[in-house]
Amino acid sequence: MIRSTIVIILAGMLLFCPLAMALTSFPSEDIQVLDLKAIAALTDEKLVENYIDMLSEIEASRAFHTTSGFTLKEYNKYKELIKYRLSLLFEINRRKLEIPSALY
Q1: Half-sphere exposure of 85 (CA within 13 A, CB side)
Q2: Which of 16, 22, 30, 71 is the most buried (most CB within 10 A)?
Q3: What is the number of other CB atoms lying within 10 angstroms of the CB of residue 56?
């Protein structure tokens, strides 16, 4: 009796744990959607920074929802990697360098 109850509880946890993780997200509270006037007032550096933040948030969120989910630590690490990649790409473009298309 006790064994079957434990099995039922464990089975329920296995079923609902992935569902709970899929419904949970870690969107950044730092991202603010600006209106056109506020965007126009940004410096070039801040404009690029906001763009990188926004792209990394979207990509991390998309990856989170198409997988079994990340922990908060994994989510933040993934976002940092995306930001780093975008920063490198912006600098490569600024310097007018080329990277092989097979590496995109």
Answers
A1: 12
A2: 22
A3: 22
Q: What is the pLDDT of residue 20?
A: 44
Domain that holds residue 65: 2-103
Spatial separation of the C-alpha atoms in residues 75 and 8, rounded to whole Å: 31
CA 69 to chain centre: 11
Domain count, the chain: 1
Give the closest residue to 14 by CA, choosing from 68, 65, 66, 67: 68
Residue whose pair of structure tokens reads 């994994």 in the numeric block:
74
pTM of the entire structure? 0.57
The residue whose two tokens read 């950044």 is 28
